Amino acid sequence: MSVTGLPADASGTVTFTSGGSTLCTTPLPLTSCDTASSLDPGAYPVTATYSGDGNYNGAVATGASFTVTKADTSMTESAAPATIAYGAQDTLSATGLPVDASGP
Fold first, then answer.
1. What tens digit of pLDDT does each residue of 85-104 get?
2. Which of 31, 36, 50, 60 has the highest Cβ tally under 10 A?
3. DSSP 8-state class, residue 54
4. What burial class does residue 56 get, using C-beta atoms within 10 Å of its C-beta: 0-12 exposed, 13-18 middle, 19+ buried?
5. What is the helix (H) or strand (E) element at residue 27, kind and residue range?
6. What local confidence, expressed as pLDDT, does residue 102 receive?
7. Distance between CA atoms of residues 16 and 30, nearest Å
8. Average pLDDT, stretch 55-84?
């Protein structure tokens, strides 16, 4: 995320928020910052808030947004052993899913 239009000699911070949650904060003269990589999938309307300093009043900008989409996954299944006698049990497994995947 980034912001433009602030005076070159402005100091303070710019905080980017969405829905009341802080996405990232950057100290001026930097004008951009990265969000966390752990944001949940969904739409994020963004508000940028400049803190102001001794020479400039604070300011708020709105209108930017971004969407986090679900990540693609792939998995491999296996049955071990591949052949079993009637009445025996087999072990079924799936590998390749992200370590933080959840659900039924």
1. 999 999 999 898 888 888 77
2. 50
3. S
4. middle
5. strand 21-27
6. 83
7. 13
8. 94
Q: What are the beta bridge partners of residue 77?
A: 94
Q: Where do the domains of the chain lie, and which CATH numbers do they carry?
A: 1-96 (2.60.40)
Measured CA distances, 34 to 5, 7, 14, 42, 98 (Å): 19, 22, 12, 17, 23
Q: What span, in angstroms and rounded, lies between the C-alpha atoms of 88 and 35?
A: 51
Sheet holding 13-18, edge to edge: 21-27, 13-18, 42-50, 59-68
Question: Which residues lie below 8 Å from residue 12, measured CB to CB, with a gap of 6+?
Answer: 27, 28, 50, 51, 52, 53, 56, 58
Decide: pTM greater than 0.85.
no
Contact 6, 50 (CB under 8 A): yes
Predicted pLDDT at 98 = 84
The CA dihedral of 79, 83, 85, 86, to the nearest 10 degrees, is 60
